Amino acid sequence: MNNEKNLPRAGSLLVVGLGLGALADWLLYGQQLGLGWTLFLGALPLALLILLRHNGIRPAWASLGPLLGGYAFFAVMLSVRSSEFVTALNATACVFLLALLARFALPGQLRELRLGELLGVPFSLLGATLHRAAPSVAEVAKTLQSAEKRRSAGPLVRGLLLSLPVLIVLVPLLASADAIFASYVTEITHWLRPERWEEQAGRVFYVLLITWLTVGGLTMALTSRRLSASPKAPEELPLGFVEAMTVLSSVALVFGAFLSIQLTYLFGGAARVLSVPGLTYAEYARRGFAELVTVAVLTLALILGLQALTRRTGKQASGFSGLSTVIVLETLVLLSSAWNRMAAYESAYGATQTRLHVDVFILWLGVALLWLIVTLWSRPWSPRFAIGALVCALGFAASLNLLNPDAYVVRRNAQRWEKTGKLDTDALYDLSEDANAELRRLCQKLPEGEQRRKLQGWIGPHQRPLGTWQSWHAARSAQ
Question: What is the pTM of this model?
Fold first, then answer.
């Protein structure tokens, strides 16, 4: 492709990038996380669609549509949920989905994405934003430096210079004739004062930085190609069938022994805790919960690793899948035990953000393990575990958004207080503005006293409306 054909793309990329940079300055600079971020994140895929249409390129809607839907959900939730953990999940989901949008807007093939490629896509986007803008910027700069462009720009520059003395005379006269016009002139001249030059230079740099990054990301999206890497042939894989089955057999035997010997302990719940001298609920949960969840995650990684590295054909493939399935089922039993331990802990001490996050994580980890069984036995779906893992990860984040963990924690603790008269107010003080509505309901139920006064004192500062519409946030602005 020659330079003349490249110029429209380079020029339009730079114009769109500058527009996004100016938009970021307007929506994000000096603002809190809120509506401005949602609008800016929404503008990024819109800019991509405009460029695709401008260049006559038809995107792969089969991959682009679902990604856009998920991306829009998490971008909106950034200005709805205030919990730090949920906000971090929403931001991470937006980055991952934005990277997938850039990678698969044209070639599609999202179903063929492998786990290693999935984890590497955000880093590919980061690399693209850092260096892929350079060719477009260089191409536009080269064009502007041409003799023809300099000759066409000359009259415009001379016209601007001649306009300056005219405006210097007319603008003050018009400002003195109308107070509203004078206020606009004062605002503009305020930006030009020497004491504001350092701030203005910083904002210009901010706009140029966003321009550079967005041009690089859009360039990646407009130049992505189909995945060409094919899986290795079975004979090229480094690990033999016997070695892999030995590892899986040892794990299956250990899990089986653990479950058979300690079945009563694993599912004994409160009765088991009370029957062991000196064993508290906290020890009961901590002694096994974290370890069991860790074992489940490591088992998932082990089976995926062996699946990718082991040579197997025919009946060997069935044997591998069968033994792996046994281990996955044992792991699901371990997850059930972890769930039971956390339920006992919550029953004794009440709900917290972390405990709810863990409960939801266990559920989605269980779904991922069930999906692994499907990929082990289905040849068409065998290479597509990554898509299921992505759905589970996004499902975990989406579930927390829909549950509103902070409000849920207040409801659970309020129910516990109504039954037992116990209320851990210290746990409630760690919640975000997402809990305001539920905390107000709880305050209305609490009798007059220190607990009620403290909660009312916490709610007040967390429901003040924000100063600018760009910083508007549903949780922080709710009354």
Answer: 0.82
